[in-house]
Specification:
alpha+beta, 354 residues, four-stranded mixed β-sheet, 38% helix, 14 helices
């Protein structure tokens, strides 16, 4: 999540998303240099003469410019305000600006362009896709995968990327089960979008179709398990990770975002186990910090409102178990929490394919 200090950088909800285009159209697509975000970058190759280059090197030495990749720089003041998500996005854009030919970004780089969540660290370098016979090599700042081009490409902010369904499948083939489920859940959920842009959502049949068309020898079983387990009703990344941890422990699958009603209105529970009359609630810090949750209220007011909501749920005859990130990412922590709340645990399930 970007902080209040972080400068605005476009995401797919704000940048027009266009496509699909055939992969053969890639060379004719609009140059990323025409995009407004490109004006922040300083490119060594665009400087004419030794004097201009000398000034650039002095600005780098003085700390005025930050090196994003060889020959591409951003003002240090701007770079220092970017979080890890936006720095990775800046590296993607720097690679596109430095390349003499259009690049097609894939896997986690495509996930960043689509605004999908990443649990853990982003890769050290962006990833692009190329034809099987392209013969191109990866570089220090760029990974090149010669696995063949997809049938279609999409354009986000002037950058070519795999479609949303293909991106989810590629991440699922490449990443651990939990983080990949979080990405798939997020992509399946329907979210509001700005006028003139493409909604950030897919349907599960799209993922199944995309999965049929990828290399069956690279992570296919792992991706199939992710697609099968994914659920667009998951309300957050933390809820997705919680669901994966509980599943691995052998707890029964919950109903997601179940609606409860009393005389004051409707309430949605993150998790609901009807056979055991148990509600599960994931409490990430974002619930108490993000504007869409606080709506102008103080943290104390939000906490009190959550306590009142929990009292209403308990009055309906349901138990309530709460946990945060520490328990969601810890099998021992979530096991203790759910067992203490009365949820039975069967023998742990085997881990999904790696």
């Amino acid at each position: 999540m970007t902080s209040a200090r972080t400068p605005a950088i476009e995401t797919p909800l704000l940048v027009p998303v266009s496509g699909p285009f055939g992969s053969s159209d890639l060379a004719r697509l609009r140059s990323p240099r025409a995009e407004p975000w490109a004006d922040r970058f300083v490119l060594l190759d665009e400087l004419v003469g030794a004097a201009e280059r000398g000034r650039l090197y002095r600005r780098v030495a003085n700390g005025d410019l930050a090196r994003v990749r060889a020959g591409v720089y951003l003002p240090s003041e701007f770079w220092s305000l970017l979080n890890d998500d936006l720095r990775f996005l800046a590296r993607i854009r720097a690679e596109a600006l430095a390349s003499p030919v259009p690049l097609l970004f894939g896997v986690q780089s495509a996930a960043a362009l689509w605004g999908l969540p990443m649990v853990g660290d982003w890769p050290d370098r962006p990833t692009v896709l190329a034809e099987r016979a392209a013969g191109g090599r990866s570089a220090k700042s760029l990974e090149r995968r010669c696995e063949g081009m997809p049938a279609e490409v999409w354009i986000i902010g002037g950058l070519a990327t795999t479609g949303l369904a293909r991106t989810v499948v590629d991440v699922a083939r490449d990443q651990r089960f939990g983080p990949a489920v979080a990405v798939a859940d997020f992509a399946l959920a329907r979210r509001p979008h700005a006028a003139g842009t493409t909604p950030l959502s897919v349907e599960k049949p799209e993922l199944v179709r995309e999965l049929r068309g990828v290399d069956p020898l690279h992570g296919h079983a792992r991706a199939a398990a992710v697609v099968d387990f994914s659920d667009g009703d998951s309300g957050s990344v933390g809820e997705s990770i919680s669901r994966v941890t509980a599943y691995r422990l052998g707890f029964p699958r919950p109903v997601l975002q179940f609606a409860f009603r009393d005389h004051l209105g409707e309430m949605f529970a993150d998790f609901w186990w009807p056979d055991y009359r148990l509600i599960g609630e994931f409490d990430g810090k974002g619930k108490y910090l993000r504007d869409e949750y606080t709506r102008g209220r103080s943290t104390a007011e939000v906490v009190l409102a959550e306590k009142a909501r929990e009292d209403r749920l308990r009055a309906l005859g349901a138990g309530v178990a709460r946990w945060g990130w520490a328990e969601a990412t810890s099998t021992s922590g979530l096991r203790r929490t759910l067992l203490a709340a009365g949820l039975p645990m069967r023998p742990p399930r085997p881990s999904p394919p790696r």
